[in-house]
Design goal:
- The protein has 184 residues and is mainly α.
- Helices cover 74% and strands 0% of the residues.
- It has 2 domains: 103 residues, Rna Polymerase Sigma Factor, Chain: A (Orthogonal Bundle), CATH 1.10.1740.10; 81 residues, Arc Repressor Mutant, subunit A (Orthogonal Bundle).
- The relative contact order is 0.10.
Length: 184
């Protein structure tokens, strides 16, 4: 059976949100429709569930504050992914700055080992370690393309980068992930 949030299209959600009397209902439906996808988009970058929930909460606070100004020049989910990506990158940068020890991109790969149920011999964990070892920008591009199957044109809007640069970044990320998987 289809979820009621799936029955309302994005344009209708935005329209309902802009009306004071239907704002909360529209926002609730928007959260129901996109929360899981955005959660996993963030989780693949920050690894830990608690941190993901913190970032996700910030994303939806930002969406609540700004949705009435959304001009629908792009798809709603593209706009949401842009907010989620920016909030995640801001969180990662902030965490690096707050740390008393130097944090590099591999710190998130190390967090994987600490996760309950981690088995370094399982291929999915090796894949996650390979992804976490990527430079930040390549990691974001890889996740959007590989997991979210986002077209380069939409990714270009989310990341404010040219399609050509994104294709190159994804290509380099794939090569690094392949090398990691072969050599580990």
């Amino acid at each position: 059976m289809a979820n009621t949030a799936d029955l309302i299209d994005d344009h209708a959600l935005v329209t309902l949100f802009k009306e004071e009397r239907t704002r909360e209902r529209a926002f609730t439906q928007l959260v129901q429709k996109y929360q899981e996808r955005i959660y996993w988009h963030i989780r693949r970058m920050v690894v830990e569930h608690e941190d993901t929930n913190d970032v996700l909460q910030n994303v939806f606070i930002k969406v609540w504050r700004n949705l009435s100004e959304f001009r629908e020049e792009s798809n709603l989910y593209t706009w949401l992914y842009r907010i989620a990506t920016n909030e995640t990158l801001t969180w990662i940068s902030s965490k690096k700055k707050r740390s008393t020890v130097s944090i590099d991109d591999n710190v998130f790969a190390e967090k994987l080992v600490e996760q309950k149920g981690f088995d370094a011999n399982k291929i999915e964990w090796k894949l996650q370690q390979a992804i976490q070892a990527l430079p930040e920008k390549q990691r974001v591009v890889f996740n959007l393309r590989y997991y979210d199957e986002m077209p380069y044109e939409e990714m270009s809007t989310v990341l404010d980068t040219s399609v050509g640069a994104l294709k190159a970044s994804y290509h380099h990320a794939v090569k690094k992930v392949e090398a990691y998987m072969i050599n580990s």
